[in-house]
Write a structure and sequence with these properties.
The protein is an alpha+beta fold. Helix content is about 45%, strand content about 20%. It has helices at about 1-15, 80-100, 125-155; strands at about 20-25, 30-35, 40-45, 50-60, 70-75.
Amino acid sequence: MSAQLYPAAKDLAKVLWQHHTIYRERDGGMVIRGEHVQRWISLGVAGTRGDVRIRAGLILDGGTTAPARTETVVPLASGTAELAAACRRLLADLTSAAEPPTSTRPEREPRRPKTPKARRGGGRGRRVVAWVLGVAAISAITLYALAAYWAPVGG
């Protein structure tokens, strides 16, 4: 069964995308990558009745593949047209799932930005004034101590 997947994947890739890459997975399935649309399709054996499991997913930035978001099972004997229709449905579901959901609630009006509070004084100017007053206070205390120490000696 997995030997029949390569020709089916090759025909399907030509129908779906003009530019594509096909490669075999470890489990024997086939992957069709459409780099230009950032999507991938995977074909794998589903059971023993000749069914094909088709999965679809996104190609992320950097080329890595995201896990499959949608999948379906189609008989391989149905032909390329039926497989392509199933793939297109999956890709459409994938595209609608990738879009951001729309909310049913009415949107709230955006809040008005708060008006900045009036500042009482400049931060830097306040620090300079505090520093000058501190130095003046220390100088006054030092002069008083010196005057008190030298008064008995000179008198």
